[in-house]
Amino acid sequence: MRRLPPVLLEDGCPRELISLIRTILAACKEISFRVGQGALSGVLGSTLDENIQGETQKKLDVLTNQLLKDILLESGYVKAIASEEEDYTVAGNPNAEYIVAFDPLDGSSNTDINSLVGTIFSVMKAPEGSDPADQSIFMQPGKSQVAAGYVLYGPSTVLALTTGKGTRFFTLDKTHGSFLLTQDFAQVPEETNEYAINASNQRHWQPAMQNYINDLMAGETGPRARNFNMRWIAAMVGDVHRVLCRGGIFTYPTDTKDPNKPNKLRLLYEANPMAMLIEQAGGIASTGTERIMDIQPDAIHQRVAVILGSKNEVETCLGYHK
Ligand code: AFP
């Protein structure tokens, strides 16, 4: 099986970018080990702190953020980082070419129940001559990402990665510590019978999403004339992995549950990297009204509605939004 660096070299991926990706993965291997140790290493449960977004931080949120932050900044390969767990961006090497936004542990509420979690990352180029301390270097639309990926800590540790030449899966061989190519060019099937949404929010959705989900639930006796199945992992990384593996539609739509927070998922380090992986595998990623990767960000922790997955099903869902 082929290891990650030669695969990326064959693609013509710049050496500096390969080194940066390997640096992220070095941290992810350590995270994989720590997550796997679970209760044995006393890392489960919450801290007494909240992050800037008012969410209670899990001990593993703090630990994984520190690991990624330290290893990236020490490597010299990043000009700056942005993290879900950092209030502001953090400056790195002024001469480095790349910036990285990451969610160190997506789905961290799953840690205490030994369920799926993952690390999501997005790599962009820093504007030439830019100041590493300037937050605005991250205000680039997702279409300018040069690499995006996640590492899913499940029964096996799987990396989904794109550098703009398709989406690939690599599996961590824990005996040798290498990520080995286990699927070249993943393709999201265009058709699906599976959807993922937190249905407990149904009464708070906008009418378009209410109507769409009602029609899916009506099954073979409804307007869609077939039955649909539902899945919800409560970790975007797990739901998107399923969609990449066997198709489906995943959505976290706008809702009115909390007027101060109409959307849940973060643009820079959740929606954008997942959108790139999905598009590179032939799927679609939209907010309902626009392509996610076209959005011009205006804040580091900006949130957006997300509808992504199998081409035909996402298009059907978008039809309800017109
Ligand atoms: P964290 O990154 O704070 O763990 O949140 C996970 C998440 O943003 C996303 O991964 C899930 O799809 C979603 O939350 C689950 O939300 P519900 O709490 O509504 O199930």
UniProtKB/TrEMBL annotation:
Cofactor, how bound (note): Binds 2 magnesium ions per subunit.
Q: What is this protein's name?
A: Fructose-1,6-bisphosphatase class 1
The source organism is: Pseudoalteromonas neustonica
Q: Where is this protein localized, as stated in its record?
A: Cytoplasm
Question: What Enzyme Commission number(s) apply to this enzyme?
Answer: 3.1.3.11
Q: Which SUPFAM superfamilies match?
A: Carbohydrate phosphatase
Domain (Fructose-1-6-bisphosphatase class 1 C-terminal): residue spans on this chain? 188-321
Recite the lineage of the species: Bacteria, Pseudomonadati, Pseudomonadota, Gammaproteobacteria, Alteromonadales
Start and end residues of each Fructose-1-6-bisphosphatase class I N-terminal domain: 16-183
* The organism's place on the tree of life at top rank: Bacteria
Q: Which family does it belong to?
A: Belongs to the FBPase class 1 family.
Q: Which UniProt keywords apply?
A: Carbohydrate metabolism, Cytoplasm, Hydrolase, Magnesium, Metal-binding
Task: Provide the cofactor list for this protein.
Answer: Mg(2+)
* Pathway assignment: Carbohydrate biosynthesis
Reaction it catalyzes: beta-D-fructose 1,6-bisphosphate + H2O = beta-D-fructose 6-phosphate + phosphate
Report residues binding Mg(2+) 2: D103, D106, E270
The question of whether Cytoplasm is a record keyword is answered with yes
Write out the GO MF terms: fructose 1,6-bisphosphate 1-phosphatase activity
Q: What class of enzyme is it?
A: hydrolase
- Main location, first listed in the record: cytoplasm
What gene name is listed for this protein?
fbp
| Pfam families (UniProt xref) | FBPase, FBPase_C
Q: Which residues bind Mg(2+) 1?
A: E84, D103, L105
CDD domains linked: FBPase
